Amino acid sequence: MDRPRKHAPRLSLGTLLTALVLGAVLFAAATITAINYYFDTRAAERVAAEEFTAIAQRSAEAAGRLERRGEQLAIAVRREEAFSAPLGHGLHPIVGPLVEYLQRRKGVFSLFVGYANGDYLEVSNLEVAAGVRAAWGARDDERWVVMQVSDFDGERVEKRRFLDDALQVVRETDSSSQYYADLRPWFTDARPGQVRKTAPYVLTMVQERGISYTVGSPEGAVAGAIVLLSSLDALLDSSRFPQTHAAMIFNTEGRIVASSARDRRFRGVTSAANIRDDTEVYPTLVALAGDPAGYGLLQRTRVGTADYYAWVQPLDSFSSQSTQEYIGLLGQRAEVMAPYRRQALVTLALSLAAALLLLPLVFVSTRLVSRPIRALVEQSDKVRHRDYASVTRVPTAIREVGWLSSSLVNMAEAISDYEQKQRDLHDAIVRLIAAAIDQKSPHTGGHCERVPAIAALLAEAATEAAEPPFDDFALRSEEKWREFKIAAWLHDCGKITTPEHIVDKGAKLEALYNRIHEVRMRFEVLLRDAEIDYLRALREDPGAEAELRAELAEKQRQLREDFAFVAECNVGGEAMSDAAIERLHHIAGRSWLRTLDDRLGLSPMEALRLADFSSETPRWEPLLADRPEHRTPREDAESRFAGFGFTMRPPALEQDLGELYNLSIRRGTLTDEDRYRINEHISSTIEMLETLPWPEELARVPEIAGGHHEKLDGTGYPRSLPAEKLSVAARIMAIADILEALTAPDRPYKKGKTLSESLQIMRFMALDRHIDADLFRLFIERGLHYRYAEVWMNPSQIDDVDATALLRGLQGVSVSANQRGVVENRPRA
Questions:
Q1: DSSP label at 708?
Q2: What is the DSSP string of 608-666?
Q3: Whose CA is closest to 206, among 113, 121, 104, 126?
Q4: What is the dihedral angle through the alpha carbons of 56, 62, 65, 71, rounded to the nearest 10 degrees?
Q5: What's residue 273's pLDDT?
Q6: Is the pLDDT score of 709 beyond 70?
Q7: Smallest Cα–Cα separation from 745: which of 444, 460, 500?
Q8: Model pTM score
Q9: Residue 824: per-residue pLDDT
């Protein structure tokens, strides 16, 4: 019977195929979208790199022009004839030329001259930038301002003259000053014939960044120009890519030369380290400038919480000897990629729409596939239930499903054929094992063949019986019969572990050989010793020959009688009385002289086992003895059968070959140790069978085979199972095993009993609830004992059986316990 199986929730084939098709469409769409997006990203990065390169190139050209302008103006001022003329009280003659220079050069804040005595002259353009006029405090009609710092009447005075377009002085202002040009860094750093450039700085008047260009002269005066950097700010602002673009020109020290107009709030800041906005883009650009490997390459960086594309490149045309200028550009990646992302979303939306339009077509197609597959599942279930004969082909329009259906039919036929061959091989191996066990001993040959025959007769009768208590028992299927027959064939497979000399033990002193021969040889030695003693005494006293001869005859007679008694005890045909056992001990009191070493000629294992025992010679030894070396201790019986629930407890010794101990056996030829070894075969049978991976249809083989030595009253072995735990099949096996053991004619320790004697013994066992009385009654009523006897028993054993007498008193015995005493010994199977 199949056990219900629990399965996790599963999808139907139609659902799965629909999901696969839609998944494939969506996967393809996603893959195409991802590939397009990847290449679009690369394209966007190329466009960004090209745009940043163009901005950097334009900025470099503009910076170069501004650089050249400042340098040219400084040199031009230096070359004026009035350059070296000292300052006086009126307008200096160089003012006119300086105004002309300022008119021609936009973006120049002022031109100036510093003198070696500390005087200073500067001409500024009031319209160069918004806020300049207000910073100087100039009026609308004033166009130029000339600032002159020099000594007047012993005081340091800053004089400002405001000029109109015609260079006429509109007004003048004077103020005290402590400014000395010769102390300023631009003055001290100036060199004749060499233009020097200052670092960017903020002109406090206009809050704009500027750079001063200076050139020295041999006379000690310095000419210079102050250039505003607002034109570079405007250029960077006009070159926006994308809208989140930030641009900056800066030097190695992080001082800002120019920045994009969107960051005009930082126009008064000249150091990027001092700029702290939400993104901190300027410190990021300065940091990137520290890695020359990234110059001129599009770099991806993270600023704050956003990803950016960055570009940093040196501006060699704008750099001085002491510092290096760079242009840094930063664009937010999301802004750059926005058009491409929109395109990817449109592609994905179109793919989803196409997938939805495919749904009806996919549904119809999957129905054409799923129906024959469901039919194939039904045919496959037949194979799983091993109903191979009913497996048929599934009609289908799908070629591959037709192939699969034909393959399933062919597979069912092949499996059926293979299983039959495997079953035949398995059964043959089982019979081979049973035959090997029978052939192991010539005295138990046929036991494993006869027991299945008896069991099959009784199982057939129980299956056919419709009345209680057999109405629930039936071996009607082939698998059930096969399970029962295999159990019958293997019921004694554990005998393979039982030593033959114990199974075949027909005499008490028999082991691997009958040790009565050793005992006889000792009696022979005593007979010779008696004759030798006689001859010695006769030599000493020839006149006492008659007396000595009579004494010798008496000794020899007694020895022969004692040996005959010992030999009779060895056969074990009669029960041993206390007097007989006492006489054995009296005979054992005789001694004989051993003069040869009994450790010579031993096998290595036997020599090792006897190494701890004395072997000195000569030595007087008892005629019969129980020596320590006769005892073999038990080692692993408990651990070997642990977990099997056996109640049969092993004796302390594995084997006891003591001569007195064995000869004193009161009934039969077996010691307690021998009987345990014989009974142990059922423990080995259960151990072997329960460790095998039986298929479900043969799962009860260990239970059926392993219960034939149990009794209904719970006194059997090896588990002492009560009646309610013994199946009908196991009870049948017990009856078959006992009947075969009683009637077997080939046992060395007994003769086979007649049919009537065997059945009478079994009747007592049924009354004592050792075997099932109902099955025994069915066995007699159906005449199965005669059917068995005619085939398997010797004609001399078959006699008349009084069935009525046998059945008397058996009704209901298997249900209620009987108080009769148990049979003393069950036959050895």
A1: T
A2: HHTTTS---SSEEEESS---GGGEEE--SHHHHTTTS----PPPSEEEE--HHHHHT-S
A3: 126
A4: -80
A5: 56
A6: yes
A7: 444
A8: 0.56
A9: 34
